[in-house]
Amino acid sequence: MRGLRSTAILGLVLVGVVAYLYFVDAERPIGEVDVKEKAFAAEADAIETLTITNTAGETTRLTRQDGAWRIVEPVEAGADEAELASLTSSLSTLDIQRVLDDTGADPAQFGLQPARVTVAFTVRDDPSMHQLLLGEQTPTGGDLYARRDDQPGIFLVSSYLETTFNRATFDLRDKRVLAFDREQLTGLEIDAGTGPVRLELADNAWRLVSPIEARGDFSTVDGLVSSIAGARMERIVDEAGTDLDAAGLARPGLVVTLIERDGSRPSLSFGRRDGATQLARDSSRAPVFAVEAALADGLPKTVDDLRRREVFDTRPFEATRIALQGADGTVTLERTAGDDGQPAWRDAAGAAVEATVVDDLLQKLTALRAEAFEAEPSGVPQALTATLSASDGATETVRVLRNATGAWAVRMDDPGAARLDAALLDDVLMAMDAVQ
User: Fold this and answer.
1) For strand 382-390 and strand 395-403, is the pairing parallel, antiparallel, or unpaired?
2) What is the C-alpha separation between 272 and 295, in angstroms, rounded?
């Protein structure tokens, strides 16, 4: 009987819920949803000043100048635009989840007197200051108690917003280690204490110009630029930069200077190691800051680090002509249009050559790379002269030298010689024999 009575009660409850949904929600238009009240009638891009006091009692004042945010107190510094965009957007879209009290109950019991976090702001064409006060989390942890300074009522906002608004000065500042316009780069210099190594960028190619003239390795140099562009400060060590000796920056062990089209030279200096970080400084700003030590460790520092190691610039798919002259004969191949309109290779006599054989030769030729750079050895016989022409009209010729102790490649536009893996050269010569 008890079971039947419980079932009957549950049935009555269900009937009541269904009736409520029918009679109450039936009057609501289809698709209508509850629209929560906004805490502030302010557009994100109209907010012009911000003052944030976090849970640690640190107050940061910011202002928007010429469309960019700057910290003005407690330090003068650029601001992190992404952080400020998130913060102002959150203010402008802040929803009141639920109003608890319109009469102004004792705010202290909700952590609102004093508030744990305070966000004050002004908007364009309105001199009045608006304030958001954030208190403790609700017992369930899903919301925060909040109020506006101009109204007595206490309301709830989503608790995840504490992370957005509870920001320290360092959180809000521009933490880039070096500010530069990558699109305006024309060169860079690296000085690891033995004199500057300089490269220039032209036609999307990096070239060493001092202390030697040689091809630069694009991926290495581009990776260097990317690592600096993406690096961020870990912490501020000396805001005023008054003790460069202590930081190892009076005579830095490594300096990287980027050269822009307008002649500006943003420069990053590295000082002493400090645990897992390294002290550094942007020459245009006073502060000494810490960066991950891996940033300095990973930067190429010598000429050889920055040289292009591939013997040939031409990639297999770009080649239109191959001319090889070795001790056992000559091979000349040209890429033409076949009878079916597809690319085809022909020898000097016009006979078709199997594409897979030519592709194998090209793959092995373009796989030659420097293991080290040395002075051109004297008295070493020439094993091969190779010329590749590319679809963009570029032509490059490489002389390959070989004796019992090793193999070297020599280019007209690179000083010295590239020491090769002799086994890779043997692969080239075997692929050349297969074409003859």
Assistant:
1) antiparallel
2) 13
Question: What per-residue string of b and e applies to 354-378 under the rule 16 or more CB within 10 Å gives b?
Answer: eeeebebbbebbbebebeebeeeee
Which helix (H) or strand (E) segment holds residue 352: the answer is strand 352-353
What the block records as the tokens of 334 is 């040209």
Start-to-end CA span in the chain (Å): 101
Scan for tokens 């032509």, then name that residue. Answer: 395
143 contacts 157 by C-beta, under 8 angstroms? yes
Q: What is 91-118 written as a DSSP string?
A: HHT-B--EEEESS---GGGGTBTTBSEE
Report the distance separating Cα 123 and Cα 47, nearest Å. Answer: 4
Q: How far apart are CA 296 and CA 191, in angstroms?
A: 12
Task: Name the residue among 396, 395, 398 with its Cα closest to residue 407.
Answer: 398
CA-wise closest residue to 400 among 417, 423, 416: 417
Amino acid identity of 28? R
Amino acid in position 167: R
Give the model confidence (pLDDT) of 401-436 as tens digits.
Answer: 999 999 999 999 999 999 999 999 999 999 999 987
pTM: 0.81
Question: Burial level of 204, CB count in 10 A (0-12/13-18/19+)?
Answer: exposed
Mind listing the pLDDT tens digit for each residue in 115-158?
999 999 999 988 899 999 999 999 999 999 999 986 778 999 99
DSSP state of 317: G
CB contact at 8 A, 91 and 42: yes
User: Quick check: helix, strand or coil at residue 353?
Assistant: strand
Q: How many CA atoms lie within 13 A of 12 on its CB side?
A: 6
Q: Which residues face 157 on adjacent strands?
A: 144
Q: What is the largest CA-CA distance in the chain?
A: 111
What is the spatial distance between Cα 194 and Cα 309, in angstroms, rounded to a whole number? 22
Is 248:237 a contact under the CB 8 Å cutoff? Answer: no
Provide the b/e sequence for 294-331 (b: ≥16 CB within 10 Å). ebbeebbbebeebbbeebbbbebebbbbbbbbbeeeeb
Pick the closest to residue 71 from 87, 55, 93, 92 (CA basis): 87
Instruction: Give the position of tokens 């933490």.
Output: 175
Cis peptide upstream of residue 377 (ω within 30 degrees of 0) = no
Of residues 308, 322, 314, the one with CA closest to residue 221: 308
Burial of 8 (0-12, 13-18, 19+ CB in 10 A): exposed
Interval 38-76: pLDDT, tens: 989 899 999 999 999 999 999 999 999 998 999 999 999
- 181-200 core/surface letters (b: 16 or more CB in 10 A; e: else): eeeebebbbbbbeeeebbbb
